[in-house]
């Protein structure tokens, strides 16, 4: 019913004492001021200005509007300034979620790039595997998720269609076999999973375990999963001690190393695609787009 332009006019009339002076202070014509006052009186259903020849005087209702105009217009100006700062990347917040094996390489590089280029943009970070991070994105609890999908698989689906998301590929990550340096296949160069069908296996996150089971089924065996941990440093430690073998993404091996472990490609090869996921609307937010660009650059540096 009452817009910002009307409030500005009422404040100007109160300050200047006439339509002519109010028009001059706002850069309007005098007839335009008169028309805006009449429109505001129609909307409020009461007289706001008492006309006394060439001078005017605010009525009680007009005085109320003029009194409230200052704080309301100041709040609007402050909101406009904050939005302009966000649009200009002088401010802004991005809530990022990423799966653990990306948090030691890809994510730190991206965060460092955002901080270097846009020091006033705040990026918060939490670890979560794709099912949880995508659920958080749907629920509005994060703005950007770093997820992954194995070859032949899609990102995990939730209650909503994945078409609601914008998905951008970041890099292709090879999955390698990890065995103890003392293992008979340590010098083989590559191996089929069926060569290790009798070995105890160490499995990671639920999706990684599912991928192991799928690959093993294709090779005609069911793996004996002796240990389960999502901590890849622990996985490598168990492998180094000869307690089992494991599948380890190449992304992990870029930051975690154990001299007692040998890794090699598997035949046939297995890969996963690391992806950045957001929504079409969030992608238009400057701080989110800047973080997406930083993830792409970090992925190129990682490769």
Automatic annotation (TrEMBL):
Upper classification of the organism: Bacteria, Bacillati, Actinomycetota, Actinomycetes, Micrococcales
Source organism superkingdom: Bacteria
Keywords for this protein: DNA-binding, Transcription, Transcription regulation
Similarity field: Belongs to the LysR transcriptional regulatory family.
Signal peptide region: none
InterPro entries referenced in this protein's UniProt entry, alphabetically: LysR_HTH_N (IPR000847), LysR_subst-bd (IPR005119), WH-like_DNA-bd_sf (IPR036388), WH_DNA-bd_sf (IPR036390)
Pfam family, one: HTH_1
Residue intervals passing through the bilayer: none
Domain HTH lysR-type: start-end pairs: 2-59
Organism field: Luteipulveratus flavus
Name under which the protein is recorded: LysR family transcriptional regulator
